[in-house]
Amino acid sequence: MDNIRYLMVVLVVVHHSVGAYAIVAPHWIVHDTNTFGADIIRELLDGFMMPVLFFAAGYFALPSLEKKGPWKFVKDKVKRLLVPWALVVLIILPLVLYDQPVKPVRPFWKYWLSYLSSFEVQLRFTQAPVVPTTQAIYWFISLLFAFFLLFALICALTGRCQGGAIFPAARKSTSGHSALVALVVFGVLISDVYFILLLFVPDSSWFTLYMFLEFQVTRLVMFAGYFAFGVYAQSRGWFADGKPLGSLTWWGALSLGLAIAYLVFGQAMFADTAGTADLTVGYLLIFAFLRSFILLSLLVILVSFGVRYWNNASGLGRQLAAASYNIYLVHFFIVVALQAALLRWIGGPAPVKIAIVFLAALTLSFAFSRWVLTRHSRAFVIAILALFVFCLVSRP
Q1: What is the pLDDT of residues 103-113, one digit of tens each?
Q2: Cys-Cys link to 165, which of 63, 71, 136, 337 (CB 3.0-4.6 A)?
Q3: What is the DSSP string of 50-79?
Q4: 177 plus 201 within the same structural domain
């Protein structure tokens, strides 16, 4: 599962690396030459990356909560999630955006106060061109913390998860027919709720709760559902015996067919950045089921392949797994800087630019994570805070 998690983070870097070159990403900060391949990558990866990360988080959450108890569990999540999130969203982002704000406010201390006041409770039915989300890519961290907090609260109120950890191998394994039934029922439930949401809310809409939470409304059912499904899979001992859930060949063929249908059939949805008002109820129903089941089949493929053929920790793999969270934290700034720099290469092929951005961003993010954040995290935080205080006091 560690390997699957860092693979998803690598795919997140890919997803953001193609943002400047995709028509379906009008909200991205940098815009360069468009290429159809970038659209396909965005459309496909957007369908499963983040739900798989939420699934992995839920899968790891249960034994962690059982081992630590609710209070220590939440305390650790505050340190690991909430503190870095606050540093990035409240300190680093305004420092980076100060020279290019949408509405210039000077000096820096006034800009920072206006930045904080821009957080509101609102439901944004976005229209093209779409502005970046308030928290940029860091909505994932605040939403994940909210899931952890709610999970710990439920366990505390029900009196569960108070003893020592029960590891997957010690749980009663559920597989075969019952696991398949659970997968189908879960897929249908997610499809139904997603479809109902699409009837009332455009797929491109975002909900913001001041500076605390931000998420796409229609995707919340997938994020919360897959977090809960990860907890369920852990409680049932899925994948602990090293056996996949069914035939990988069968699941692979199903995933391929669903992926093709999803990409071909979904073009009307992907192009509809202003909402879903012009799409029929029948279209929305089919799209909801395609999106739900391509996600479900790819999750089964990824985790089943992982437990059967990738259930080991190589030297590089172990380092990438350890650095995956930090890579997520820092890669955004590197990707945007590289994309902006490559704007000067007029006429440069978009695939070449994408490759440069991805490889350089992944390498630099990994290096920064390993040699700065891992070894000198306290010094880095002190330096950022010192720069922030200096800007508050003296930057015009």
Answers
A1: 678 899 999 99
A2: 63
A3: HHHHHHHHHHHHHHHHHHHHHHHHHHHHII
A4: yes
Query: What residue type is assigned to position 117 of the chain?
Result: S
Boundary residue ending a domain (260, 276, 311)? 311
Same domain, yes or no: 251 and 338:
no
> Does the pLDDT of residue 381 top 80, yes or no?
yes
CA distances from 28 to 24, 96, 126, 177, 284 (A): 9, 16, 13, 44, 26
- Nearest Cα residue to 251 out of 198, 305, 175: 305
H or E element: which one contains 283?
A: helix 281-309
Task: Tell whether 218 and 264 lie within a shared domain.
Answer: yes
Residues 182-230 pLDDT 10s: 899 999 999 999 999 998 888 888 899 988 999 999 999 999 999 999 9
Angle at which helices 281-309 and 2-17 cross, to 10°:
130
The DSSP call for residue 132 is P
> Do β-strands 121-124 and 213-216 pair in parallel, antiparallel, or remain unpaired?
unpaired
Instruction: Give me the amino acid identity at 307.
Output: V
Print the domain residue range for 394: 1-46+325-396
pLDDT of residue 101: 59
Any domain includes 319: no
Report the SS3 class of residue 26: coil
Does residue 317 belong to any structural domain of this protein?
Answer: no
State both tokens at 88. Answer: 């990035």
- State which amino acid sits at residue 388: F
Structural domain count, the chain: 2
* pLDDT value for 219: 93
- Residue 208, amino acid: T
Question: Is 53 inside any structural domain?
Answer: no
Strand partners, 216: 206
pTM of the predicted protein model? 0.92
Q: Are residues 37 and 68 in the same domain?
A: no
Question: Mean of the pLDDT values across residues 126-130?
Answer: 46
Rounded Cα–Cα distance for residues 49 and 51 (Å): 6
The answer to whether residues 51 and 226 touch, using CB atoms and an 8 Å cutoff, is: yes
Tokens of 116: 């904080």
- Residue 306, in any domain of the structure: yes
